[in-house]
Design goal:
248 residues, 0% strand, 2 domains, single chain, mainly alpha
Length: 248
């Protein structure tokens, strides 16, 4: 359940960011909400754009190539014109393949399927006409998404480190507790003088253990303060980037 809540939270952030970038352009928002990824590094194929385009020519599915082209175009502003042409070419290829399929299903009387393919054609026409806007928004979207993705990964690493420290503290506490109980039984079987000396030694040991415990608590407090400082820096960074996007 916790994971699902986190996923919904991330999806909500993605949606809000995209709405911010598209402003009042509902058509652009509707298109990009189906073409941009919260984690592009995981969602987009690692294959080269040329290979994906070649595969699309064989299987009729150019979507992986389109996703790759939008992402690379967003990442390489100096080559934007080239990627605009690539995406427009992929749109034309998709339209051609889809029109052939639409003609076939219409002859078979599959009206719902034909209507769906018609929407795909209109979608590709929109992509061809608005390619520059698509890459412009995608570049800002992926810039922010990748920054936050990096922050999230580092946050998770710090969390795992804290959990390991806490687990070690718990293990140490359990060992010390077992040691005290065993020592108590041992002292119970001693003579008076021997027991008195043993109790003195135990007292010194308890003081040393308490000092270690206090030191660990201090380290934990410092780690929590550092985590809070990092979170505040990340928040300030997000707000600064949002202001910058608003000026562009």
């Amino acid at each position: 359940m916790w994971k699902k809540k986190e996923e919904k939270k991330e999806e909500g952030k993605e949606e809000n960011l995209l709405k911010e970038l598209c402003r009042d352009d509902a058509e652009l928002y509707d298109f990009l909400s189906n073409y941009l990824f919260l984690d592009p590094l995981a969602a987009i194929s690692k294959k080269s754009l040329d290979i994906l385009t070649e595969e699309g020519g064989k299987n009729g599915d150019f979507r992986p190539a389109v996703d790759k082209a939008i992402f690379e175009g967003a990442q390489n502003p100096g080559e934007r014109e080239r990627y605009i042409k690539v995406i427009q070419n992929l749109a034309l290829k998709t339209i051609h393949v889809t029109e052939q399929e639409k003609e076939k299903v219409e002859k078979e009387g599959l009206t719902d399927r034909a209507a769906s393919l018609g929407k795909r054609i209109e979608n590709q026409k929109f992509m061809s006409e608005r390619t520059e806007d698509i890459i412009s928004v995608a570049s800002k979207f992926y810039k922010e998404t990748l920054v936050e993705l990096g922050e999230s990964e580092r946050r998770e690493e710090r969390k795992e480190k804290r959990e390991k420290v806490e687990a070690e503290e718990w293990r140490t506490a359990e060992i010390e507790k077992a040691g005290r109980e065993a020592r108590k039984k041992e002292i119970g079987g001693m003579g008076r003088e021997e027991r008195r000396e043993a109790e003195k030694q135990d007292k010194r040991g308890e003081l040393a253990a308490e000092e270690k415990k206090e030191a660990r608590a201090e380290e934990k407090g410092e780690a929590e303060s550092e985590e809070q400082r990092i979170e505040e820096m990340e928040k300030a960074g997000r707000e600064a980037r949002k202001k910058e996007r608003g000026r562009n």
